[in-house]
């Protein structure tokens, strides 16, 4: 993939039994070594186009022939349009209380109001930290939401976020358009997901209303010979789940084809 793995900025990962704390880069290296041990050829190339049949055209000009294609290109995160967000993403700008809160427990945490679910995230984070600041940003908080935040001892920073402020390679705080900086060495922000896939419309791969490739229980798409596994068809699959999608057994040929769709909450 030209853009690199989605979790490339992360220093380590969790939730993968026997690989807790391993960096995504190290996991990728181990996986490639195992695959190469079975005689599989690896290409450090980007796929520019796949023609029916299948002819796989690489960015260096090479063309490979294949009888089957497995699409495992994952997804990408659409980040909030806040200066500094992309640079701090996966480092000290986080997105999931369940995935990240334990690692930043008992530390000051800021929650950016970039999504309607941001208040809920702030309330959840209060279980891990006594120092949570909610940046209203573009959200128009209702009286009930403000009451909930106050009941949990969460301070609301009024005003629109201008940028994330760093000191060296660390997040220092959040600057508001009014000019002052609120200290926040860790921040959490919601984001949206988009599938990263070379499945062109010419292939005819069916997708759900949110753009995710639809498959049956074995990962087969609506196009003969094309499979889709991992986050390209399941937005909520974690690393271990996405990896397991590639090992699902192919059902017997006499089984009824049942389509499974994925959706983004």
Automatic annotation (TrEMBL):
This is NAD(P)/FAD-dependent oxidoreductase. InterPro entries: FAD/NAD-bd_sf, FAD/NAD-binding_dom, Ferredoxin-NADP_redctase_2. It catalyses: [thioredoxin]-dithiol + NADP(+) = [thioredoxin]-disulfide + NADPH + H(+). SUPFAM superfamilies: FAD/NAD(P)-binding domain (SSF51905). Residues 42-243 form the FAD/NAD(P)-binding domain. Residues 244-265 are annotated as: Disordered. It comes from the Bacteria. Gene3D superfamilies: FAD/NAD(P)-binding domain. Residues 253-265 have a biased composition (Polar residues). It comes from Streptomyces sanglieri. Keywords: Flavoprotein, Oxidoreductase. The lineage of its organism: Bacteria, Bacillati, Actinomycetota, Actinomycetes, Kitasatosporales.
């Amino acid at each position: 993939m030209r853009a690199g793995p989605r979790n490339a900025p992360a220093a380590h990962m969790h939730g993968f039994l026997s690989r807790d704390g391993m960096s995504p880069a190290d996991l990728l290296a181990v996986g490639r070594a195992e695959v190469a041990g079975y005689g599989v050829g690896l290409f450090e190339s980007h796929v520019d186009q796949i023609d029916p049949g299948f002819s796989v055209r690489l960015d260096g000009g090479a063309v490979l022939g294949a009888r089957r294609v497995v699409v495992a290109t994952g997804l990408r995160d659409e980040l909030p349009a806040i200066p500094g967000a992309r640079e701090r993403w996966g480092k000290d700008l986080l997105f999931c209380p369940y995935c990240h809160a334990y690692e930043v427990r008992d530390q000051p945490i800021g929650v950016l109001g970039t999504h309607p679910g941001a208040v809920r995230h702030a309330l959840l984070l209060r279980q891990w930290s006594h120092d949570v600041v909610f940046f209203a940003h573009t959200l128009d908080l209702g009286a009930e939401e403000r009451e909930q935040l106050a009941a949990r001892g969460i301070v609301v920073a009024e005003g629109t976020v201008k940028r994330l402020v760093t000191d060296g390679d660390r997040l220092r705080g959040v600057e508001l358009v009014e000019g002052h900086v609120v200290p926040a060495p860790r921040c959490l922000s919601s984001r949206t997901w988009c599938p990263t896939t070379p499945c062109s419309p010419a292939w005819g791969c069916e997708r759900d209303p949110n753009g995710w490739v639809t498959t049956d229980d074995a990962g087969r798409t609506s196009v003969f010979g094309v499979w889709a596994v991992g986050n390209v068809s399941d937005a909520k699959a974690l690393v271990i789940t996405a990896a397991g999608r590639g090992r699902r057994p192919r059902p017997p040929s006499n089984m009824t084809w049942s389509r499974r769709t994925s959706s983004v909450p």
